[in-house]
């Protein structure tokens, strides 16, 4: 089961919102990370298309969108993603997750990580099972909510 991490020190009152209501509120999804090789860049591209095919609006971190030659309207600075998205998927290692969480903390936005690093403590989704885990999280609401950045 995927972990969704709260990017801020403020606990979201989940008692007021059922988990299935929370996952149904994920309409605009941010895609972030810092791909260091072609394999990681391809993962960003694949996840982007997977989300688009399922009807999500996707905002991609500007540098990644440019490398992937995605439509200009999908590219956004991380701060813009924080303002507009309901969830951010970070592809990379724990360092990428921590860096993105630091910037996104002021927007109180949940993060989910696909591990492309070594440890995978914060980015716990295995890339080999990424789509099944994303589907379980986004479409069926199967995830754990953890506030690890407070």
Quick take:
By secondary structure, the chain is α/β, with parallel strands linked by helices. The chain has helices at 19-24, 38-53, 62-68, 78-84, 94-104, 130-140, and strands spanning 2-6, 28-33, 57-61, 75-76, 87-92, 110-115, 143-146. A 7-stranded mixed beta sheet has the order 4-3-2-5-6-1-7, sandwiched between helices.
Describe this structure in words.
With 150 residues, the protein is of the alpha/beta class. It has a single domain (2-9, 16-146), classed as Probable inorganic polyphosphate/atp-NAD kinase, domain 1 (Rossmann fold, 3-Layer(aba) Sandwich). The protein is 39% helix and 23% strand. The protein has six helices and seven strands, in the order βαβαβαβαβαβαβ. GO terms for molecular function: ATP binding; NAD binding; NAD+ kinase activity. InterPro entries: ATP-NAD_kinase_N, NAD/diacylglycerol_kinase_sf, NADK.
């Amino acid at each position: 089961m995927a972990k969704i991490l709260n990017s801020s020190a403020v606990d979201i009152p989940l008692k007021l919102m059922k988990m299935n209501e929370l996952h149904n509120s994920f309409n605009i999804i941010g895609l972030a990370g810092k791909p260091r090789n072609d394999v990681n860049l391809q993962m960003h591209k694949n996840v982007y298309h997977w989300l688009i095919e399922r009807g999500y609006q996707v905002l991609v971190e500007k540098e990644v969108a440019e490398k992937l030659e995605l439509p200009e309207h999908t590219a956004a600075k991380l701060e813009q993603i924080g303002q507009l998205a309901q969830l951010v998927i970070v592809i990379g290692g724990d360092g990428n997750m921590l860096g993105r969480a630091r910037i996104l903390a002021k927007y109180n936005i949940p993060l989910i990580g696909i591990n492309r690093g070594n440890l995978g403590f914060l980015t716990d989704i295995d890339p080999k099972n990424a789509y099944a885990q994303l589907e379980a999280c986004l479409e069926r609401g199967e995830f754990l909510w953890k506030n690890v950045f407070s």
